[in-house]
Specification:
By secondary structure, this protein is mainly alpha-helical. It has two domains: 114 residues, no CATH class; 109 residues, Endonuclease III, domain 1 (Orthogonal Bundle), CATH 1.10.340.30. It binds a DNA duplex through α2, α3, α6, α8 and α9.
DNA sequence: AACCAGGACGTGA
DNA sequence: TCACGTCATGGT
């Protein structure tokens, strides 16, 4: 079985740093490429810089559940336009207003409730880094969302397993398609250096490569397998 | 015009 | 534990 670190380095060489987690509402820096897509901060791992950005990641992680990121962006922009992109405002705002704002991201009835829950949670921990079980106890936060929040909002070394990871590495014969979330997570964490940047970058690279090679309407060929 | 997207929850075996 | 139905908008 091929070395995961070699696959990581191949992907990094092909695609370059991905700049995850995208933060739509941050100041552009000198390091931003002129035409780089807003949000992605390629090669800059100094995020998040404050609790507002931390909450933007939490909100994005919930909103992107089984949903295209382009739809999440619309919802995040609506939230920002209504001054709702912070935990306190989300907690206090009217539920119907919240639903209206996040409508483009789909599942808005349940996601509005989930956003309220995660907002209350963020306020309750007062900026300290939460434990994994703690976040998992929030309704609407499952294993992938919890790991995304820990890895990207709190810079904790928790590997994120999503549908792309499962699909791509099933094709690469690392495990079968009915492997459990935690089994897959352990495979990655046991075979990679416990490095937050590697975890962050690898997950983002997997998403990019899987979009190109392992999603619908895309033929799998020899270049898919690195 | 189906099909799918950076899942999670509730339910009943 | 586990398989299955449900949730919803927007792009292809």
């Amino acid at each position: 079985m091929k070395d995961l670190l070699k696959i990581y380095n191949s992907l990094l060489k092909i695609y370059g740093p991905q700049g995850w987690w995208p933060l739509l509402f941050r100041k552009r820096t000198k390091r931003d490429k002129e035409n780089s897509f807003i949000g992605y901060h390629c090669g800059d791992y100094s995020y998040p810089k404050n609790n507002q950005q931390r909450f933007e990641i939490c909100a994005g992680a919930v909103l992107t559940q089984n949903t295209a990121w382009t739809n999440v962006e619309k919802a995040l922009i609506n939230l920002n336009n209504n001054d709702l992109l912070n935990a306190k405002a989300v907690k206090e705002t009217d539920l119907q207003e919240l639903k209206k704002a996040i409508m483009p991201a789909g599942y808005y009835n349940q996601k509005a409730i989930y956003l309220k829950k995660i907002a209350e949670f963020c306020l309750s921990i007062k900026g300290r880094t939460p434990a994994r079980e703690e976040i998992l106890s929030v309704k609407g936060v499952g294993p992938e969302t919890a790991d995304s929040i820990l890895l990207y909002a709190y810079n904790q070394p928790e590997f994120v397993v999503d549908a792309y990871t499962r699909r791509m590495f099933t094709h690469l014969n690392f495990f079968n398609k009915n492997a459990k979330y935690n089994e897959i997570k352990e495979i990655f964490e046991n075979r990679l250096p416990k490095d937050v940047i590697v975890y962050q970058e690898f997950h983002a690279l997997i998403v990019q490569h899987a979009k190109n090679h392992f999603s619908r309407k895309v033929k799998i060929n020899e270049s898919s397998f690195l």
